[in-house]
Amino acid sequence: MSKTDQMLSILWMLRSGKQMNAQQMSDQLEVHIRTVYRYIDSLCASGVPIIADSGPNGGYRLLNHFIESPLRFDMEEQKALVHASIFAAESGYPYTEALNRAVNKLKLYTNDDQLDEINRHHDGMSVIYPPITDKQKSHLEILEEAASQGITLSIMYDKGRRTAPAARELDPYGIVYWKGSWYTVGYCSLREELRSFRVDRITAVPETKRRFERPAGFSAKDFLMRNLLPDSLNSHQLINVIIQGQEQVLNELCQHWLFGHALQEREAGKAVFQLGQPSLLTYVPYFLLPYGRTLTILEPFGLVEKLAEVSSSLAEHYEKMKLCEG
User: Fold this and answer.
1) Residues 245/269, Cβ–Cβ less than 8 Å
2) WYL domain: which residues (predicted)?
């Protein structure tokens, strides 16, 4: 047997839970006892928690928690890992290559039937996300590493307003994937406050010599959602929005990022949301407008009025277009 096979055999012997001495292992493997000592040393160096008990009744054994740990993935775990790699690759996850290497190692140590099963699960899953550039992936790696190690970055950020990218120092607390885009959240020294930045608008991310400590319990995800839904999550003046409609239509509405977080009650043919007044008078009517007659707004009446106003404005706009064409 090869050295790797013999070391794995020693691991399996110890994993049985029995204490074995070097001579017993030597006899089973049919190798010199000094070879067993070298293999034990190599296993310890690789991080295997082997305990050596001295004395006449001594020998080698594994820590209990390592004995109880599985040395292989079952088929459900293999399937989940393969599917996770697909999601990661399509979303632009910065360590996709490392995840793919892990999946390839998984495939390397499977038999033909298991490999066929893994490939069939892989081929049966597809994910569609907006494409992400190699530059963005590189920036994501730097941002994630800086967030974990507490390294301040000097980013160049393009606001998308036809102005030159501006430099600012950022303490990145984390990265968040939301609705097809990656964001980083952290303390901006320019604004002297917590801010979020779209990664696709960052043009450079050089490191600085400064270090920072991320606040205990801070959630980049929660911060981003509070900023995306300021009046719906933070306002004390929330308004009940009661909508009636077909089950399929209401299900689709509840999956929307805004309404999903504002849902309070759900029953057959009706859903109750709580939204802030600013939302009701700005973007909410435009979210509801495409559903047309499939939805009925029971409350509040102000939202019905706003929808009527928006609809009339659109009808007038298209009437003018018809006249221009004529």
Assistant:
1) yes
2) 139-205
What is the DSSP code string of 82-149? HHHHHHHHHHT-TTHHHHHHHHHHHHHTS-HHHHHHHHHHHHT---------HHHHHHHHHHHHHHHH
Give the residue carrying structure tokens 């939204």: 275
Residue 210 has phi, psi (to 5 degrees) of -80, 150
Q: Are 1 and 48 in contact (CB under 8 A)?
A: no
Query: What's the whole-model pTM score?
Result: 0.63
- Which pLDDT score is estimated for 130? 82
Give the end of a domain, one of 183, 199, 227: 227
Contacts of 1 (CB under 8 A, 6+ apart): 9, 29
DSSP sequence for 168-215: EEEEEEEEEEETTEEEEEEEETTTTEEEEEEGGGEEE--EEEEE--PP
Per-residue pLDDT tens digits for 196-230: 999 999 999 999 999 999 999 999 998 988 777 66
Place of tokens 């209401």: 250
pLDDT value of residue 326: 59
Secondary structure (3-state) at 166? strand
Q: In the structure encoding, which two tokens stand for residue 319, read together? A: 């009437």
Q: Is pLDDT of 98 > 70?
A: yes
Same domain, 7 and 26: yes
Please count the other Cβ atoms lying within 10 Å of the Cβ belonging to residue 268: 6
Asked if residue 212 and residue 179 are part of one domain, the reply reads yes
Taking only the tens place, the pLDDT of each residue in 138-153 is 999 999 999 999 999 9
Q: How far is CA 49 from CA 9, 20, 46, 65, in A?
A: 16, 15, 9, 9
Residue 129 forms part of a structural domain: no
Continuous segment of H or E residues that includes residue 77: helix 75-91
